[in-house]
Amino acid sequence: MVVTFACLLLTILIIQVAISIYVFVVVKNSGEIDFENIYRTNLFMKYDNQEEKNFVNTIQDGLQCCGIHNPQDFPTLLHGTPIPGSCCGKVASDTCDPTESYRTGCVEALEDFFNSALTVLGGVALGIAATELQCCGIHNPQDFPTLLHGTPIPGSCCGKVASDTCDPTESYRTGCVEALEDFFNSALTVLGGVALGIAATELIGIIFALCLANSIKNTERRGYSV
Prior knowledge:
Blueprint: H1 2-28, H2 35-42, H3 50-63, H4 73-77, H5 106-133, H6 143-147, H7 176-221
Helix pairs in contact: 1-5, 1-7, 5-7
Subcellular location: Membrane
Membrane topology: Multi-pass membrane protein
Keywords: Disulfide bond, Membrane, Transmembrane, Transmembrane helix
């Protein structure tokens, strides 16, 4: 039971740090994702279809954006289609005056939302791992402001509540990758010792069983019943 629990904890920690590292890499390389092509081809240019229209209006209303790059994309790219109400906080079936419409294009808004969401996800996962392992960042505390666009070092990096922040001088110096490696090696040592102990016990049991079997055979050979 204890071994199973230790294995589960180890698995959870590995997943947490793996998520953090993956998120940091994705955030760093998010510029390679072609948001414009995805949004233009799969949604905006299919605005005549009700399903795509609903999706575009939901994005515009939720992210307070309009068009691909600006409100004029509707009349320009969609053959005179008026700017929908979702571009200015109205019901989607209404229309918007260009002067009232959101100025930010939805490609830019989606990129910002994507990066912000990943930053939060990576920070939360790494924050949990930091509390459990007393570590900070991937390699050091500066990974937060450097890789996560100025994100302050969270309280979990110095034993505080995660919603607080840490001064760099108070933060754990060990990165979570190194801490996870140490934890992993320690856990393997413990698990290896337990497994060896179980194996030794089983071996002793096997030896006794063989001895007993041999004794029974010898007794039967002499004509006695057991």
